């Protein structure tokens, strides 16, 4: 993603700390207190400009959502949407996903969304892909037993890599679609990238991957 420097972004984020949480490590194990309820928590890693997660928050008020985004100049657009909609069930963290376990405790998260993650096409960069095994291990540490990853992408190479990575890790694949927009999947909320790529005629791939670590 091309990231434009926005010098005002950090001030805007600081001014809206009820939505863009500063020092999120303080709330590890306490996110239900932050939201003021015990509803399930779903996170999106690489939220970008926030269209998907704000849409999900409006559609599902009984679920709490947390968007994780590395760049302040990008997350600020998501924050503007949350502020405009005054969403009580959505928070944003301007942090790097590699540090997820600093912010979330074991069993604290119910689902991870990955949407149009950076493909890192060069083989030597494969470890940076958000579906690489080290990231799957990270998600497993914060997810409930039997938690799920829901993944969408337009990138065939990343999708192929991710299916192999999920299955090698022992996740169970469900609801696999090689053409989401021409499938019977209902209630899809498009991300900014999804709109852009599907307008160009690209197919959208989607899969759900479930950790098989339930207590028997
Ligand atoms: C290609 S964009 C997709 C944005 C959005 N999900 C969409 O579909 O429109 C990928 C986003 O993931 C973010 N990202 C990549 N690696 C990340 C990481 N390690 N931690 C947090 N965000 C990350 C990038 O900054 C970028 O905004």
From TrEMBL:
Entries under SUPFAM superfamilies matching the protein: S-adenosyl-L-methionine-dependent methyltransferases
InterPro entries xrefs: SAM-dependent_MTases_sf (IPR029063), tRNA_(Gua-N-7)_MeTrfase_Trmb (IPR003358), tRNA_methyltr_TrmB_bact (IPR055361)
One Pfam family named in its UniProt record: Methyltransf_4
Residues the record lists as binding substrate: 122, 154, 191-194
MF (Gene Ontology): tRNA (guanine(46)-N7)-methyltransferase activity
Superkingdom of this protein's organism: Bacteria
Amino-acid positions noted as binding S-adenosyl-L-methionine in the UniProt annotation, renumbered to this chain: 44, 69, 96, 118
EC number: 2.1.1.33
Any one of the GO CC terms: tRNA methyltransferase complex
Family: Belongs to the class I-like SAM-binding methyltransferase superfamily. TrmB family.
PANTHER family, A to Z: 3-DEOXY-D-MANNO-OCTULOSONIC-ACID TRANSFERASE/TRNA GUANINE-N 7 - -METHYLTRANSFERASE (PTHR23417), PENTACOTRIPEPTIDE-REPEAT REGION OF PRORP DOMAIN-CONTAINING PROTEIN (PTHR23417:SF14)
Described function: Catalyzes the formation of N(7)-methylguanine at position 46 (m7G46) in tRNA.
Protein name: tRNA (guanine-N(7)-)-methyltransferase
Annotated organism of origin: Metabacillus litoralis
């Amino acid at each position: 993603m091309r990231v434009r420097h926005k010098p005002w972004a950090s001030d805007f984020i600081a001014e809206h700390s009820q939505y863009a949480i500063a020092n999120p490590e303080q709330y590890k194990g306490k996110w239900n207190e932050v939201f003021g309820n015990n509803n399930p928590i779903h996170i999106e890693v690489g939220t970008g400009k926030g269209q998907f997660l704000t849409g999900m928050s409006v559609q599902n008020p009984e679920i709490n959502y947390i968007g994780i985004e590395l760049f302040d100049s990008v997350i600020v657009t998501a924050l503007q949407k949350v502020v405009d909609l005054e969403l009580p069930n959505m928070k944003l963290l301007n942090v790097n996903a590699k540090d997820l376990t600093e912010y979330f405790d074991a069993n604290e998260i119910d689902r991870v969304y990955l949407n149009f993650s950076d493909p890192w096409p060069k083989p030597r960069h494969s470890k940076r892909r958000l579906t690489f095994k080290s990231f799957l291990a990270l998600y497993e540490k914060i997810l409930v037993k039997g938690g799920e990853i829901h993944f969408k992408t337009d990138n065939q190479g990343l999708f192929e890599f991710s299916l192999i990575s999920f299955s090698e890790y022992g996740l169970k694949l469900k609801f696999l679609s090689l053409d989401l927009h021409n499938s019977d999947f209902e209630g899809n909320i498009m991300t900014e990238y999804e709109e852009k790529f599907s307008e160009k005629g690209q197919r959208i791939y989607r899969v759900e991957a479930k950790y098989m670590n339930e207590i028997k």
